[in-house]
């Protein structure tokens, strides 16, 4: 099974840390963020497609054409046109197969990601205090997603998308509409798709989004605590 990791952004909110390196290469406990994401990939994943852009050579040089026993392909996203546009660039490499999609912005756990693979189509969610910064999901009591909205001013739930999704070729039947900021978000494609197909919201036990420089220290503290707990 293939995984698609979106890692093309500049990470403007992470400056000055991203002035000389891409956000996925910022180190947390001595390893790039993207390395941690590879660590969270279940064994079912045998190939990874990384969408690259900003300072992409650093990513290519570190991960090369295979990493952690997984084959790697790269797709260049020349312009910042959003998550949906990035996924559409990858479409020829997916061969209409089911795939895992993640962002290079967050720390996840392998156990949580594996839970998503149990469903034909799924999206991992986490309850948060302020969901306005994320894609927000509303779901019924059985976990079926009813709607998704990107960064709503008035959220209808506190379930935030963690960025992990299990999708297949159906998603490409729902092109995203252009956001006022000029980008195309996968959230819009998903909000259209759930009217026709069942997408299951899977609750994560662990998720740590990396958005600002001060999050690095917090993330290291959280990871150290998790490592101690696992001993």
TrEMBL record:
Has UniProt tagged this entry with the keyword Metal-binding?
no
GO MF, one example: nucleotidyltransferase activity
Does the keyword field hold Transferase?
A: yes
Record-annotated Nucleotidyl transferase domain positions: 2-221
The UniProt keyword set, sorted, is:
Nucleotidyltransferase, Transferase
Q: Which InterPro entries match?
A: GlmU-like, NTP_transferase_dom, Nucleotide-diphossugar_trans
Domain of life here?
Answer: Bacteria
Q: What is this protein called?
A: Nucleotidyl transferase domain-containing protein
UniProt organism field:
Candidatus Giovannonibacteria bacterium RIFCSPLOWO2_01_FULL_45_34
Q: Recall the taxonomic lineage recorded for the source organism.
A: Bacteria, Candidatus Giovannoniibacteriota
């Amino acid at each position: 099974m293939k995984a698609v990791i979106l890692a093309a952004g500049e990470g403007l909110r992470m400056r000055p840390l991203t002035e000389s390196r891409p956000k996925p290469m910022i180190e947390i406990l001595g390893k790039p963020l993207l390395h941690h994401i590879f660590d969270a990939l279940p064994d079912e994943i045998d190939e990874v497609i990384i969408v690259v852009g900003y300072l992409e050579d650093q990513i290519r040089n570190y991960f090369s054409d295979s990493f952690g026993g997984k084959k790697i392909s790269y797709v260049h996203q020349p312009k910042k046109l959003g998550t949906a546009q990035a996924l559409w660039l990858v479409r020829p490499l997916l061969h209409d197969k089911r795939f895992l999609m993640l962002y290079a912005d967050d720390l996840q756990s392998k156990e949580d990601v594996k839970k998503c693979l149990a469903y034909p189509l799924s999206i991992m969610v986490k309850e948060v205090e302020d969901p306005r910064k994320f894609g927000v999901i509303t779901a019924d009591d059985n976990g079926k997603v009813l709607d998704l909205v990107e960064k709503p001013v008035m959220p209808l739930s506190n379930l935030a998308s963690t960025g992990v999704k299990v999708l297949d070729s159906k998603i490409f039947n729902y092109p995203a509409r252009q956001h006022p900021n000029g980008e195309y978000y996968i959230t819009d494609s998903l909000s259209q798709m759930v009217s026709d197909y069942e997408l299951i919201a899977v609750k994560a036990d662990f998720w740590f989004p990396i958005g600002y420089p001060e999050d690095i220290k917090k993330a290291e503290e959280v990871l150290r605590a998790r490592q101690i707990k696992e001993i």
